[in-house]
Amino acid sequence: MAEIAEASNLSFVLNKPFDVKFEQKPKPSIESPHDVLVAINYTGICGSDVHYWVEGRIGSFVVDSPMVLGHESAGTIVAVGSAVKTLKAGDRVAIEPGKPCRYCTPCLAGHYNLCDDMRFAATPPYDGTLTGFWTSPEDFCYKLPEHVTLQEGALVEPLAVAVHIVKQAEIKPGHTVVVMGAGPVGLLCCAVAKAYGASKVVSVDIQPARLEFAASFAATHTFTPERVSAEENAARLLKEAGIVGGADAVIDASGAEPSIQTSIHVVRRGGVYVQGGMGKPDINFPIMALCVKEVTAKGSFRYSSGDYKLAVEFLSSGKVDVKRLITGTVKFEDAEQAFKDVRAGKGIKVLIAGPNEKSCRCIGGH
Question: Could you tell me which residue ranges the Enoyl reductase (ER) domain spans (predicted)?
């Protein structure tokens, strides 16, 4: 990192769809004795970031004033509040990019992802982490083990999303699991399901290259759907994967209507279906199949108590190897081009180095 006293708080700001700029923001200060100040080293590009860049909104969240993008970040502690006990300057951390109220019923139950007053990074009107410095509550920063890199640390956020989805799916050792979509979160769901002991993990996608990667990463089987009915795709999937009676759990990490429809026909009677991907607000849904099979259907939103901690443990133990998902890193000033590349489907996970990070280099070539 550059000298902190002179370091830049350059930020990547979205004004409106396809209109971004670099802007120097005031360096944030520690306002609570329980907060820490983090110099951002690396930030991943999430699908929601791209969606805001392209559409200027996600559902009811609308960008109606300039907003700093980014929320998948890792960084280095540079200052701590007077009451901070577990972190110190120089510690490398993965940042959980939300600040819940801590007092409402969901928060008190550990489901702070459902807090009505959540201040989540890069969700209007709150600024994100594609910036030089970020303040965070001490307990929402997770110290990285020495052998885990800051680049890997930036992927703790999507890994925690996958952890939460798999928890929702109630996956147990020996279960059969089908994951719709082989994007970053879908791939990580495969890896986490495997870490939970699933005996068969099927990755489903329409892109052969992604399925090839999924097979080498965590999936035991892959499946390419055809332009036929959901029932036909489901029957062929179960036959090719050797799953009798349906999968114990099906996770949709795509948000695509045909995948969602197929999922309900793939899951077994009494099984669990989890919606992790976000697509159109309203779709045609096979509700009769859901009822007749008595499927438990759940949503999944971000992450809650314990998810980040478990994600870091999976990285530390080597049970999930996120390094393989990192296509490469780009300099901060190349952030807009990185967004264009992600939108064009290039690579799996692109990282943007913070404006004070001097070690930016390409990592891989997926």
Answer: 19-352
CB of 73 closer than 8 Å to CB of 129: yes
CA dist., res. 240 & res. 204, Å (int): 12
Give SS3 for 336: helix
What domains can you pick out in the chain, each with its CATH number?
4-154+321-353 (3.90.180.10), 161-299 (3.40.50.720)
Q: What is the value of pTM for the model shown?
A: 0.94
For 21, 50, 343, the CA distances from 336, given in Å and listed in that order, are: 9, 10, 11
Cβ–Cβ under 8 Å, residues 69 and 173: no
pLDDT in tens, 61-85: 999 999 999 999 999 999 999 999 9
Q: Note the helical H segments in the chain.
A: 47-55, 105-108, 150-153, 156-169, 184-195, 208-217, 230-241, 257-266, 287-292, 307-317, 335-343
Residues pairing with 14 in the sheet: 20, 67
